[in-house]
Design brief:
Among the domains are: 1-98, Conserved hypothetical protein from pyrococcus furiosus pfu- 392566-001, ParB domain (Alpha-Beta Complex); 144-200, no CATH class. It is elongated, with a radius of gyration of 42 Å. The longest helix has 35 residues, at 238-272. The chain has a five-stranded mixed beta sheet with strand order 1-5-3-4-2. It has 284 residues and is α/β, with parallel strands linked by helices. The N and C termini lie far apart (138 Å). The chain has helices spanning 24-37, 58-66, 81-95, 100-113, 118-125, 129-137, 143-150, 156-162, 168-181, 185-201, 238-272; strands at 2-6, 11-12, 43-48, 51-56, 72-78, 217-218, 225-226. It has eleven helices and seven strands.
């Protein structure tokens, strides 16, 4: 690690990071002290491919930029983005209160984007394995539940219980109970246990009966039965409807007459093909 004087405008701030929070009074005092005494402690950066990337000291950096300071003290070490994120958690989380939403985003980035295993995250951040696993698991919560966590209306322990309910509707019903009744962690654990037991003991619904073919429907014109998908509905006036009925009736009559004529013709041909029968008692 080395100390350098750096133009604050050249320092890149990662989108995903953890930043300690000040209340309004402390933030006002902090800004005033920066104006009057200047930077007391250097900020921390990692040099990633020739770029200064901020690890710790966002508020000091922002005030230096706001006050148009030309150069600030920076403690620099070489590394990569994994070093940036893990050191960011290590310094800021152990220093004080940090938003769970930011912790979750950084841990997810390390695990999913940079493929860092849970054990490595634990070693490099100083967090407990249980805490890291909870942060990764709660990504399965619904947006409504995650919002309640990020707004600190519920804690990480309660979020860890909610994620055991895999049904999204069930999660949000449980959240409503928690917020309305101000439940603490023991009450939430008991409720989730009851929900999971009820799901486990629920009787499976009977199998659906075999599908039946759709019933036939008579055509309004020809009177023959067809399946519903073989029918079409056409809007027409009574005059056209009458013409259609008459046309179909005439066609039906012609078809019947043609069939009868064919039958008669067939009978005649069959009769002509028979050998001549002589009356009884006649001789050649």
């Amino acid at each position: 690690m080395r100390l350098k004087r750096v133009d604050p405008k050249t320092i890149m701030v990662p989108e995903v990071r953890v930043t300690a929070r000040f209340d309004e009074e402390k933030m006002a005092m902090f800004k005033e002290s920066i104006k009057t005494t200047g930077q007391v402690a250097p900020i921390i950066c990692v040099m990633v491919d020739g770029q200064f990337v901020l690890v710790d000291g966002l508020h000091r950096l922002q005030e230096s930029l706001a006050n148009k300071v030309a150069a600030i003290d920076v403690v620099v070490k070489d590394g990569d983005m994994v070093d940036v994120l893990t050191q960011n958690i290590f310094v800021d989380h152990l220093r004080g209160k940090t938003p769970v939403s930011e912790m979750r985003q950084v841990i997810e980035a390390l695990y999913k984007e940079y493929s860092i295993g849970i054990e490595d995250i634990v070693k490099r951040t100083g967090l407990s394995q249980e805490y890291v696993e909870k942060l990764l698991n709660i990504s399965e919560l619904t947006p409504m539940c995650l919002e309640a966590l990020d707004e600190e209306r519920i804690g990480i322990g309660i979020a860890g219980e909610l994620v055991k309910i895999k049904d999204p509707v069930g999660q949000e019903v449980a959240l409503s109970y928690i917020l309305a009744n101000h439940w603490k962690l023991p009450q939430v654990r008991d409720y989730v246990r009851q929900v999971l037991e009820a799901i486990k003991s629920k009787v499976e619904p009977p199998p659906a009966p075999p599908s039946q073919p759709p019933p036939g429907v008579k055509c309004g014109f020809c009177g023959e039965e067809h399946t519903p998908n073989e029918l079409a509905s056409i809007l027409c006036c009574h005059s056209c409807q009458g013409i259609m009925y008459e046309s179909i009736a005439l066609a039906r009559r012609d078809a019947q007459q043609a069939a009868a004529a064919a039958q008669t013709q067939g009978d005649s041909v069959k009769h002509a093909a028979l050998p001549e029968q002589k009356p009884p008692g006649s001789y050649q």
